[in-house]
Design goal:
This protein has a single domain, classed as Up-down Bundle (Amino acid/polyamine transporter I). The chain is built from 14 helices and no strands. The N and C termini lie far apart (about 50 Å). It is mostly helical and about 400 residues long. Helix content is about 80%, strand content about 0%.
Length: about 400
């Protein structure tokens, strides 16, 4: 039964967790734990609508957007094209940084990233859903177990920040606010992933040849969603206990950051765990790189065909066009910003923060459309929950844009 929800978790547990959550703990201790919980709570309905729609209709969310109106598909397509290069570049450069650090490679991040993207393209071409689904379950299990062990070991060490190095989160500090926006943007994941989730659900139904029951789809999703929230809190805890108030800061350079990240684990568990942690961290980021690239090739093909119905391209040529375009654009960005990984990550997460209410609204409209039967539409409490969430997400985006362009 499990599958799409764990693939969602594999895509979510990446930059937002290994990088942003750990940075939040390392820079501000436990000050942002409430923000972490709030972000997971406020976005929940809009992610839940994806498996609900897919299980209820047997369709993916792009088809759901079409039911809302062709304008919704066009809007989604524009937002995807505007964000896909920064998102793919951000997850790929973090993965490449881990590869370079773990294996001691002296090649540039652009070369390592190129190799990673070629490998992921081959996996997508050969294995498609079934291979990715099987690998993801193993990766998530390894990461979860190793993170729990690391957090428990760190808690036993105790929380002892040195007063001279403690930094309090300052709501009037532009740098702190900028990080907060980036932190929320991908916590637990960009809302784009909800669309990907519906495609994975659609693919699972197609490969198994049976319809997934709504209760099973929601259980699969909730396991993945709650699990990623717990893991995010775990990464923040590791950063807070092992780095906050120590006088150390994460480096903006990818390979250095990767080494510091792995050191967080080994300093709490022991040096003997280096191999396990290195494999878990690398597998996690590789899975995120893989699922992102796989998702873009899945969603953009039908999106293009709906927007341009006269476009007649046989076979998988359109899929490969988008794959090559995403890879090429991502490598250009990596080449430009390779020396400042944190800037690239913050850029991608900030864009996701600003576009979140638009995608959230589209998901809400799709799941409330006539394509979803009345009994499968969100219950009244969940609709109210989503409406409140939409208000909050919209106000946050407007406030950020006002602060960024009119005040800052």
């Amino acid at each position: 039964m499990l599958g799409p929800g764990l693939m969602w978790a594999g895509a979510a547990v990446g930059v937002s967790h290994l990088v942003q959550s750990t940075r939040a703990g390392a820079e501000f201790g436990f000050a942002l734990i409430g923000i972490l919980i709030f972000a997971n709570v406020i976005k929940y309905p809009f992610f839940e609508f994806a498996p609900r729609y897919a299980a209820s209709t047997g369709q993916h969310l792009v088809q759901g957007y079409k039911n809302v109106g062709k304008w919704a598909v066009a809007l989604y397509g524009i937002l995807t094209v505007l964000t896909m290069f920064t998102i793919q570049a951000a997850v790929t450069v973090v993965t490449a940084s881990l590869v370079g650090n773990i294996f001691g490679l002296s090649y540039s991040l652009v070369i390592i990233s190129s190799g990673l993207l070629v490998v992921t393209m081959m996996i997508i071409a050969i294995g498609r859903y079934s291979l990715i689904d099987g690998v993801m379950k193993i990766i998530i299990l390894i990461l979860t177990i190793s993170t729990i062990i690391a957090v428990v070991s760190a808690v036993n060490i105790g929380y002892h920040p040195q007063p001279n190095f403690e930094i309090s989160f300052d709501w009037t500090n532009p740098m702190h606010l900028a990080f907060l926006i980036a932190f929320i943007g991908w916590m637990p994941a960009p809302i784009d992933i909800s669309v990907w989730h519906s495609f994975w659900s659609f693919a699972k139904q197609k490969e198994t040849g049976r319809k997934i029951a709504l209760k099973d789809a929601l259980l699969d999703f909730n396991i993945g969603y709650i699990g990623t929230a717990i893991l995010a809190a775990g990464f923040l805890t590791l950063g807070a206990i092992l780095m906050y108030g120590s006088g150390e800061n994460f480096s903006p350079k990818g390979t250095v950051f990767a080494g510091q990240l792995i050191q967080l684990y080994t300093s709490s568990i022991g040096s003997w765990a280096y191999v396990v942690i290195a494999i878990a961290a690398l597998a996690t980021m590789f899975s995120t790189t893989l699922t992102c690239l796989d998702a873009y090739s899945r969603v953009l093909k039908p999106t293009t065909e709906i927007i341009i119905p006269t476009l007649k391209i046989k076979g998988n040529l359109l899929t490969w066009f988008w794959l090559v375009l995403v890879v090429s654009g991502s490598l250009v960005l990596i080449g430009v910003f390779a020396k400042n990984m944190t800037f690239m990550v913050d850029l991608a997460t900030t864009i996701s923060f600003v576009t979140a209410p638009i995608l959230a609204y589209l998901n809400f409209k799709a799941v409330m459309s006539k394509a979803v039967s009345k009994e499968n539409q969100p219950p009244k409490w969940l609709r109210l929950y989503a409406e409140v969430g939409l208000v909050f997400l919209s106000l946050f985006s407007i406030a950020f844009l006002y602060w960024r362009f009119l005040i800052k």
